[in-house]
Amino acid sequence: MMSKAQSAIKASNLFKRFGDLIAVNNISFEIFEGEIVGILGPNGAGKTTTIRIITGLFESEDNSEVYIFNQNLRKNLETCKSKFGIVPEISNSFRDFTVRQNLLFTGRIYGLSKQEIETRAKVLLNQYDLYDRINTKTKSLSKGLQQRANFCLALLHDPPILILDEPTSGLDPISVSIMRKRILQMKEEGKTILITTHDMQEAQNLCDRVLIMNKGKIITDADPDTLRRNFKQKSTVRFQIVNHISTNQINQLEEKLKIKKEKSGYYSFLSDNPIHDISSLSHIIEHSDIEVKNITIKEVSLEDVFIDLIKKTKRSENND
Predict the structure, then answer these.
(1) Cα separation of 228 and 303, whole Å?
(2) Cα–Cα distance between 249 and 18 in angstroms, integer?
(3) C-alpha 88: how far from its chain's center?
(4) Separation CA 161–CA 140 (nearest Å)
(5) How many domains does the chain have?
(6) Whole-model pTM above 0.85?
(7) 152 and 40, same domain (yes or no)
(8) Closest CA to 62 of 21, 17, 106, 92
(9) Residue 153 domain-assigned?
(10) Cα 298 to Cα 300: distance, rounded to the nearest angstrom
(11) Which stretches within 69-172 are classed as H helix?
């Protein structure tokens, strides 16, 4: 029997107010060692404030509790803060420093010796294909290379928890691929990873769980596949008929699959089981002179679920 993963972050009753604005409204959650968890939500949902509370940058109300690997954040602030490596959306490295100078500066902040910094930096720079830029000033790097350098800085002291704020925003496809592959590798190495992102496809592909926030509250906490499976919307199957077909043939398709006509010879239908229904479509085609091509399936995405949940929250607020 497998043992339960250790608690990496446990937050209870987090609350934060800025004047009349309640940014975080009495939320609780737990994240386990080795998980990739996405914190998602529209602008102003409370994501950044939540991250700042659990990393010790903001204080929450007196009845809140945050534990980092079972250590109380308030009582062990510096120890807990050292457990985090943070990759911000906008680089916080010194632009006029070289990559090496930024690494040396960051390493000294964490109390590493020069030898420890040099050894660790060499490994990281090679992992992120950046070693040949070690003497390049940060401001001369492309955005993709700057983001790779940010990962190296965040990982220099080998923290068990990594916070990624929009880790692939604005990057070219090659850099995006490198970043996503490395994030999954870090999970395999045992890192606990929190991602804040507006890229729902990224969250769907990378995250074991997502916390979706709105107006300072967590409105759902589940894995992306479960959210998609339980969503009321069906998958959409779309196809093109390239020859002229009769009214009877159209009626047959409508009867069997409830198809809907689109433009330029395209048709679509909703399906709970698209593979089965495409097989039914193929069977109909085989016994007729209908010529079909360009069959595609649009499955329910995390973005579909996200939009629906946010809309439901707004409707609920309007009805109160």
Answers:
(1) 9
(2) 63
(3) 14
(4) 29
(5) 2
(6) no
(7) yes
(8) 17
(9) yes
(10) 7
(11) 77-81, 99-109, 114-127, 143-155
Q: Using one digit for the tens of pLDDT, what is the confidence trace for 105-119?
A: 999 999 999 999 999
Average pLDDT of the chain, as a whole number: 90
Pairing of strands 209-214, 192-196: unpaired
| Phi, psi (rounded to 5 degrees) for 91 | -55, 135
* Residue-by-residue DSSP string for 109-134: HTT--HHHHHHHHHHHHHHTT-GGGT
Range of the domain at 282: 235-298
Question: Which residue among 191, 223, 255 closes a domain?
Answer: 223
pLDDT at 4 (0 to 100): 67
Q: What is the pLDDT of residue 215?
A: 93
Query: What is the C-alpha to C-alpha distance for residues 14 and 59, in angstroms, rounded to an integer?
Result: 9
For the ranges 56-60, 124-128, 180-184, 251-255, the lowest mean pLDDT is seen at 251-255
Residues 195 and 72 in one domain: yes
Q: Which amino acid is at 201?
A: Q
Angle between helices 143-155 and 173-188 (to 10 degrees): 20
Q: Are 81 and 226 in contact (CB under 8 A)?
A: no
209-214 and 36-40 as β-strands: parallel, antiparallel, unpaired? parallel
24, 6, 1, 2: which is closest to 14 by C-alpha?
24
